[in-house]
Structure formats: C-alpha cells, structure tokens
C-alpha cells in the first residue's frame, strides 16, 4: 500500500474566558458541522481551535491505518513531509500553528517578543515564557472583527490628552506637554515622548488609576445618558471594556492604540513588539509555533508591565496601515495569498466559484493545513488511501509536494484557508 501523506485531522479546542459561548462560536459551529457526533455545550466557551502539532494541542490523525495517533508524532517520524527547505530551516518541526478564534470579550493588552528577547525571557522566567521562539501572527476576519493594534498617530493621542482630563492626570503634565511639543520632523523624539507617556500610564499606582478610571466612567456614562456625543473620549469602547474588566488599567490603552475594524477576508499582521488586543469577532489566525506573550492589562493572567513597556515598537501610524493586503495569485485566480514579512508561515484564502466543479489544490514544497469554511466536496489524492469527504469544519494535513483534487458538490462554491511555509 502506498504511504499515506494526506489525511484528515481532529483538532484541539481551547476554552478561555474571553471565548464565545456554544452555538454563537464559529469554533463550535465548525466543530459541529465537521463531526455530527460532537455535542456542543451551550455554557462552554469555545475560544480557539488549534490546527497543528503544538504539544499543548497536538491534532489527532483521523485515519486508523496510520499507526501514529497525533500529527506531532507523525511529523517526527516522517520529517520529509515538511518539504526539504522547511525541514532544514525549522529542525524537522512544523513551523506554524493555525487557529480559528471566536472572541466575545477583549483579550489582554499584549505583545510578542522577537527571537532575541524570547530566548532571554525563557531563560529567566520559563514558568511565564515557555519557549525561546518569536511569535509573529496574522489574523484574517471570518466575521466583522475588531482589535486594538499599534500606536495611533500622535495627533489622535494628543487630542485625547486634551479631551480626557483623567488620562492627562495619570500621565502627568510634563510627559503630556513633551508629547504635544514633539514634532513630526523628529520621529525618534516622537517615539521617545510616546514611550514616556505610555510607560507612565501603565506604571500608575493602582489606587490612583482606579479612582481616575471610575471618575471617567461615571462622566462618560452621564454624558451618554444625556444623549451627548462621547466619541471625543472614545466613550462607547471605554464603557464596553470597563464592563468586561472593571478597574483595569488596560481600559486607558484605547487612547493610545488604534481601533482596527476588519471585514471578512481582511487581515492584520502583528510583528514582534507590536502592542495589540483582539476585542470581538471570529478569525482564522496563523502564527509561529510559540506560546510567548507579554501581557499588561485586560487580563487576570500574569502581567509584566516593565518588559512590555521596554519592548514595544513606539512608531505611530494610522489604523488603515494595519490592514495587511492579500495578493491574488497570477497562476490561480481563486487563490489570495497573505504573505507576511516572516519566514514561518503564509496563508492562502481559496475562493472556488460555483461554476467550478473540479478544483486542484496544488502541490507546494511545504507541508500545509487546509481548513474548509464553507462548501462540500469529495477529495482524492494519490497520497490518500481513500476518498475524503470535505465539509464545513473539515481539516486536512497535506504533505509537501502532494496535491488534492476536489469534486465539488455544493451549489455555492467553496471557501478554504490553507496555512503553509513559503521559503
């Protein structure tokens, strides 16, 4: 019998407090449609679906002719499946973790370290930083998606400093004036002033910032009740975050960080040291295979304010610059490629129109993971032992240099996402 190199996966679900409940969660919906035997619990938060070989959520192989039970074990025994370049560059490991996220309440204000800092943090505090790898990541919206990402243009921050006295009180007059005076002709001066302001905010004494936050929330609530426009104080978002994390310093970061709204198919890329927090919606996400996160607010978890404030990229930029473009493939008009400036991963969005009934998922010199978001098909491959039924929620592992023929049976075409490594 020929060796099986293309096979379906059953993937790990992670429940976190910020996830969407049962039937509202895209993660749960994908799970339920991929496996009719799965019972969705209405009171469980289905936050993340992990598609990959991470030790905390190694995918289970759904083909009983394969002796290895998990993807991680199978790759360890068959490293050539990664593709020659990927295998050598990443020491025989799958370099990415592919996910679906269903976000109900905000995730923590966080950033991910670069490789140099990751190695240092892991050596010093292994209990908080579990590995020595960097963790760049990309999110592509499945439903309208909101997140905070990167520092706002300075004029927006200055405008908030002038219209939100509680924010100005926390930062202090000297630091606020320094930012107001910093000129756009001196980007290093702007970054330095921004660093001072943000660090002063994040290191505020707890009692002081809780008092200021309560005053701010009370003022905005009264203004909103009187029908006044609170957008000059970012009122709607402040009240929303405060209801989720009352008394949390992270509520003030909305005055420093861009609010980025993505429509389905739009993406944002989060490089090393980029401050961010997902707020609401469903997305597919791909990242380097790491768990390193430096947090500083909107979370009950371990926070490391000093490290975060030291490591951040303090370059202001408009929210529009945070949307990462997809490039339509020259070879296959159904494929849109999101190729971030890191070697660890890339993502393809594959939109097969209803007019196409036979589609080839092409071979590439990298292992890949394929996720079906909508549509149904029978999949055949010389590297699969038998036909595979693909439906919403199906996940396939495809070894390097293998292709799959899809015989579409859905009237509306298909939407697929494919994570891979393009070296």
Automatic annotation (TrEMBL):
<protein>
    <recommendedName>
        <fullName>Mannose-6-phosphate isomerase</fullName>
        <ecNumber>5.3.1.8</ecNumber>
    </recommendedName>
</protein>
<keyword id="KW-0479">Metal-binding</keyword>
<comment type="similarity">
    <text>Belongs to the mannose-6-phosphate isomerase type 1 family.</text>
</comment>
<feature type="active site">
    <location>
        <position position="295"/>
    </location>
</feature>
<dbReference type="InterPro" id="IPR001250">
    <property type="entry name" value="Man6P_Isoase-1"/>
</dbReference>
<keyword id="KW-0963">Cytoplasm</keyword>
<dbReference type="GO" id="GO:0061611">
    <property type="term" value="P:mannose to fructose-6-phosphate catabolic process"/>
</dbReference>
<dbReference type="Pfam" id="PF01238">
    <property type="entry name" value="PMI_typeI_C"/>
</dbReference>
<dbReference type="InterPro" id="IPR046457">
    <property type="entry name" value="PMI_typeI_cat"/>
</dbReference>
<dbReference type="InterPro" id="IPR014710">
    <property type="entry name" value="RmlC-like_jellyroll"/>
</dbReference>
<dbReference type="GO" id="GO:0061729">
    <property type="term" value="P:GDP-D-mannose biosynthetic process from fructose-6-phosphate"/>
</dbReference>
<feature type="domain" description="Phosphomannose isomerase type I catalytic">
    <location>
        <begin position="6"/>
        <end position="154"/>
    </location>
</feature>
<feature type="binding site">
    <location>
        <position position="110"/>
    </location>
    <ligand>
        <name>Zn(2+)</name>
    </ligand>
</feature>
<feature type="binding site">
    <location>
        <position position="276"/>
    </location>
    <ligand>
        <name>Zn(2+)</name>
    </ligand>
</feature>
<dbReference type="InterPro" id="IPR011051">
    <property type="entry name" value="RmlC_Cupin_sf"/>
</dbReference>
<feature type="binding site">
    <location>
        <position position="112"/>
    </location>
    <ligand>
        <name>Zn(2+)</name>
    </ligand>
</feature>
<comment type="pathway">
    <text>Nucleotide-sugar biosynthesis; GDP-alpha-D-mannose biosynthesis; alpha-D-mannose 1-phosphate from D-fructose 6-phosphate: step 1/2.</text>
</comment>
<dbReference type="InterPro" id="IPR046458">
    <property type="entry name" value="PMI_typeI_hel"/>
</dbReference>
<dbReference type="Pfam" id="PF20511">
    <property type="entry name" value="PMI_typeI_cat"/>
</dbReference>
<dbReference type="InterPro" id="IPR046456">
    <property type="entry name" value="PMI_typeI_C"/>
</dbReference>
<dbReference type="GO" id="GO:0005829">
    <property type="term" value="C:cytosol"/>
</dbReference>
<dbReference type="GO" id="GO:0008270">
    <property type="term" value="F:zinc ion binding"/>
</dbReference>
<keyword id="KW-0413">Isomerase</keyword>
<keyword id="KW-0862">Zinc</keyword>
<dbReference type="InterPro" id="IPR016305">
    <property type="entry name" value="Mannose-6-P_Isomerase"/>
</dbReference>
<keyword id="KW-0597">Phosphoprotein</keyword>
<feature type="binding site">
    <location>
        <position position="137"/>
    </location>
    <ligand>
        <name>Zn(2+)</name>
    </ligand>
</feature>
<feature type="domain" description="Phosphomannose isomerase type I C-terminal">
    <location>
        <begin position="337"/>
        <end position="377"/>
    </location>
</feature>
<comment type="function">
    <text>Isomerase that catalyzes the interconversion of fructose-6-P and mannose-6-P and has a critical role in the supply of D-mannose derivatives required for many eukaryotic glycosylation reactions.</text>
</comment>
<dbReference type="InterPro" id="IPR018050">
    <property type="entry name" value="Pmannose_isomerase-type1_CS"/>
</dbReference>
<feature type="domain" description="Phosphomannose isomerase type I helical insertion">
    <location>
        <begin position="170"/>
        <end position="257"/>
    </location>
</feature>
<keyword id="KW-0007">Acetylation</keyword>
<dbReference type="GO" id="GO:0004476">
    <property type="term" value="F:mannose-6-phosphate isomerase activity"/>
</dbReference>
<dbReference type="Pfam" id="PF20512">
    <property type="entry name" value="PMI_typeI_hel"/>
</dbReference>
